[in-house]
Specification:
Helix content is 9%, strand content 38%. The strands form five sheets. It has a five-stranded antiparallel beta sheet with strand order 5-4-7-8-9, with no helix packed on it. A five-stranded antiparallel beta sheet has the order 12-11-10-13-14, with no helix packed on it. Strands 18-17-16-15-19 form a five-stranded antiparallel beta sheet, with no helix packed on it.
């Protein structure tokens, strides 16, 4: 299905519910339909470099839009959390980050920042020849050779700072007290600060473990562990792009 009614579309999309009956539906991809922005809508409504969907398609088909370092010509391509959107022809770069009002928003970043992506490890599997595969939140995988498992067997939900598009790991951030983190889901999405405490549930099940975040203004918020993404040691990673 190429289109979806505007009332069936994800609630956070920046589109008018009264303008037209139909809007673009995201294709299956690295992000869920309910948590992604179709590329055509992103070009038209978020970046505002096209006045119509037809014009947005023309820009996309011309190969001017890159997502995570790769040209994307599918106008229904799903863009989601932590994706890096680049438009080299006009020297503009953006990161998709969690927002406390609209769930997802774009923040402009530098060309240097756009070289990196932040993504969490969702789970790990042992594959052929005893190698380890890190399965990441955006659908990509990183293969760890058997001889390097000892140094690269990171805990689940660890954030990897990777180079684009090579996927080389340049930094890791584990979810620990004292680390800097951002909330990526729930009613407090977009808020960030220092992890003050982690109250683990039985068997450390993320769904029931509670994390307390202290913001720069001194206020604290709580959310469950699966909504937490570590993005720095004691402050935000300088390449993240959020102040």
């Amino acid at each position: 299905m190429a289109h979806i009614t505007r009332f069936e579309a994800p609630w956070f999309l920046q589109i008018s519910k009264k303008e037209y009956k139909w809007t673009v539906r995201a294709n299956p991809g690295p992000h869920k339909l309910s948590e992604s922005i179709p590329l055509a809508l992103l070009v038209k409504h978020y970046l505002k470099i096209a006045e119509t969907t037809k014009e947005a398609k023309r820009i996309i088909f011309s190969g001017k839009i890159m997502v995570d370092g790769r040209v994307r010509k599918d106008y229904k391509y799903p863009v989601g959390l932590m994706d890096v959107v680049s438009i080299p022809s006009i020297d503009k770069y953006y990161r998709v980050v969690p927002d406390n009002t609209r769930f997802l928003k774009l923040v402009e970043i530098t060309k240097e920042d756009a070289k990196y992506k932040f993504v969490r490890i969702i789970n790990k599997t042992t594959v052929k020849h005893g190698n380890l595969q890190l399965n990441l939140e955006d659908g990509r995988n990183i293969l760890v050779p058997k001889e390097k498992i000892g140094e690269m067997n990171y805990p689940t939900l660890t954030t990897l700072k990777i180079e684009l598009p090579s996927q080389n790991i340049v930094k890791t951030y584990e979810i620990k007290e004292g680390k800097y983190a951002i909330i990526i889901g729930g009613r407090n999405a977009g808020l960030h600060g220092i992890i003050k405490s982690i109250q683990y549930a039985n068997y450390k099940r993320a769904k029931y473990s509670i994390v307390t975040i202290e913001q720069k203004n001194g206020e604290t918020v709580q959310t469950n562990l699966q909504n937490i993404m570590a993005i720095g040691d004691t402050e935000i990673d300088p390449n993240f792009g959020v102040k």
